[in-house]
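Narrative of accomplishments. A recurring question from our advisory board has been how the design workflow behaves on a single, concrete structure rather than in aggregate. To address it, we present the structure tokens for one chain from the evaluation set, followed by the sequence designed for it. No filtering or post-editing was applied between the two.
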């Protein structure tokens, strides 16, 4: 029962009986006329379940002892660079894995983002029976299990394109294959949100197709392009399955592969430190993408122009 203010009225209140704490909590949590607090509780529980294990793992990167399960005191720098033999900075295998991850992520950004932008432009302007089929093929890497994708890429490079041996080149091509779809989705969503009116206005003013693309479309797409760069970096730097299937051995190990191989033995907390560095890089990339996208679209939000919200623009992706 509810009163005129929209708040829940407990059954005992009519009889002058003080409601119990349980009744008050149920009224607060499941009040159909108020804020859906139960959804908020579920959301925070999910966040806690997801974040707490990561926080615990990062905590042991500051452990003063060598255990990754027993806390033996706090040391801020020991497993990052102070330990002379087993820290991230002094262990060449950890440094090599970190450099390999950064190399793959950087090359993936430089290759997948331009290709994805051009593919998004082509798919957004393509009309006909083959357009829907092309959209499905482009989205296929998003819905394919990553293990299947890794096995398929490994078979392709072993038996079809056997001139490409397992190693950095194969890993880069594998990363580009599965990250290209993310770029297309983000950029095409931005294209749908801004519409065609700016291109039509530029054409009416005498601009050539190339001038329209260079002076009008690309500046409007710049928030999506930068977001795509950071998204590709975040996806690529922590990929494990495809990097593992296309690896040539220890020389091609990335940070996720190195962490997996180390945890099967008796790892040092430097592995936790390496994982913490990876988490920090991923969060930094996503945070920078969000802030830059907000800054680049600040005028659109103030004016209420289309394209101000990238998440709303994603809904414009059709098949």
């Amino acid at each position: 029962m509810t009163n005129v203010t929209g708040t829940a009225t407990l059954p005992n209140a009519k009889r002058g009986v003080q409601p119990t704490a349980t009744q008050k909590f149920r009224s607060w949590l499941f009040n159909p006329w108020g804020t859906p607090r139960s959804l908020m509780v579920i959301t925070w529980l999910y966040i806690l379940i997801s974040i707490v294990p990561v926080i615990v793992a990062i905590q042991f990167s500051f452990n003063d002892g060598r255990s990754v399960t027993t806390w033996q005191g706090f040391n801020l720098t020991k497993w990052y660079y102070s330990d002379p033999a087993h820290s991230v900075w002094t262990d060449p295998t950890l440094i090599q894995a970190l450099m390999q991850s950064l190399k793959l992520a950087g090359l993936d950004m430089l290759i997948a983002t331009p290709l994805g932008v051009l593919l998004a432009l082509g798919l957004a302007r393509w009309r006909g029976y083959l357009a829907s089929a092309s959209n499905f093929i482009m989205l296929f890497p998003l819905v394919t299990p990553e293990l299947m994708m890794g096995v398929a890429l490994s078979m392709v490079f072993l038996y079809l394109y056997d001139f490409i041996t397992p190693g950095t080149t194969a890993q880069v091509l594998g990363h580009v294959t599965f990250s290209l779809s993310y770029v297309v989705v983000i950029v095409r969503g931005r294209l749908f949100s801004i519409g065609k009116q700016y291109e039509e206005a530029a054409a009416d003013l005498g601009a050539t197709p190339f001038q329209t693309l260079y002076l009008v479309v690309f500046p409007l797409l710049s928030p999506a392009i930068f977001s795509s760069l950071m998204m590709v970096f975040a996806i690529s730097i922590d990929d494990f399955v495809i990097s593992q299937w296309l690896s040539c051995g220890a020389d091609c190990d990335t940070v996720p592969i190195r962490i997996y191989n180390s945890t099967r033995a008796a790892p040092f907390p430097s592995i936790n430190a390496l994982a913490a560095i990876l988490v920090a890089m991923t969060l930094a990339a996503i945070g920078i993408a969000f802030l830059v996208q907000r800054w680049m679209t600040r005028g659109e939000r103030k004016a209420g122009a289309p394209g101000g919200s990238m998440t709303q623009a994603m809904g414009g992706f059709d098949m």
